[in-house]
Amino acid sequence: MVLITEELIRRRAEHNNCEIFSLEEISLHQQEIERIEYIDRWCRELKILYLQNNIISKIENVDKLKKLEYLNLALNNIEQIENLEGCESLQKLDFTVNFIGELSSVESLKQNIHLRELFLVGNPCTEFEGYREFVVATLPQLKWLDGKEIERSDRIKAMQNLRQVQLQIREQEQAYLKKRDKEKQEAKKKLENPYQKEKSEAKESKPGFDGRWYTDINNTILDCEENKECVHETQGTEKHKGSDEDEIDKKFWEEPTPFTPESRLETHRHLEEKRKANDAKRETEKQKPPRKLITEEGRVLNVNEPKLDFSLSEDEDNNQIVLDLAVYRHLDTSRLDVDVQTTYIRVTVKGKTFQLVLPSEVKPDSSTAKRSQITGHLVVTMPKAVEVVGPRPTLPRPVKSAPDKAPTDNTRMAKQMERLEVDPSKHSRINLENIVKKEKPVAQGPLKLHRPAMLESLCSTGDFDDDSDVPPLI
Fold this sequence. Notes:
The protein is an alpha/beta fold. It has 9 helices and 15 strands. The strands form 3 sheets. Strands 1-2-3-4-5-6-7 form a 7-stranded mixed beta sheet, covered by helices on one side. Helix 2 (about 40) links the parallel strand 1 (about 25) and strand 2 (about 50).
């Protein structure tokens, strides 16, 4: 039995952003619902309601849906039309393939003045003589009945023969109700008989403690051969169990049954039991045996159930082992569990185990695990338990001279620091001061004090005689 819950309605209201109070249309078909409830409280704005293909036996809890325009209750177990007077806006009503035998219950729809379409196809009442005339005369607001338009002439004929048709309908209703009482009694007996049969079969076929169909008081010890036979019998029963279930299922579907609400309930229950059995069988098949992480001899195995990429490296400078596990980037860290042991590391990712044997022993207490904020990788740093003693780096030492040799002047001069003198003219940088040559300044004054350069050069030679009477050359 499926109940109408808030969760179910919200799941079916995805088109309305899962909002219930403003919901105008909802489909609750094929949910195996047996009772209508809570809809009139939670969905006051509802206009279209689909409840077909369920096992609803009574119309209830819909009278407060003032805006309801279309109600579909096809393929249910409804036997009487009732509790629809409060649906003031109801325009279309579908009762296809139900068990409505009280045709007089159609009179309860007189107050639904906006009702235009009514479907009663597949109900027992449609087999009554004068069925269509009675419905057309009883509900003058109808325009369509069972998909056929009601013409004016049909309504006039129905009104003329209404009294006679009413008497016929009453008689046929009483006969149908008596038939229904018998069917209900037979259904009750049928439900009780299988239980009594099972009891009697259990009493008759109850074996003794030795697995045989009789018990020998004197013989309390089983022979080996008899024990083997019992084992073979149990194995045979397990093999034939599946075939027996198939035979029972085949017998259930081939057995002729009357078309009644009870038979429909029985069919639904049979299907539900079969579905549950199949689901349980699938679950048992899906359950895998627990994976071995450590053998019976105590050897640790390498396991990668989540199938993640990883890299294991040794940092010799810091004397540690680093594991880089490519965990899913958007996975919440709470779904990870890291367990570092001296010889192996185990990481649980969403219930799946990743286990790796380490090349050397580590210190679990000093290990650290960090998560990358960019890539999401899990980086586990594990310092080694045994420190590696390596050679220290040697510094170059100066070469000492032989002590027997006496120091000489040359060796003393070599020990002294030699400094190189660099000619400023050979300097790599350009000296801008010497780009333009400077000329000697020519001072103004008497001509005798300032001789030209040519005269000076001639005077410097011995062949030149300076005559004071000759004026100087300019």
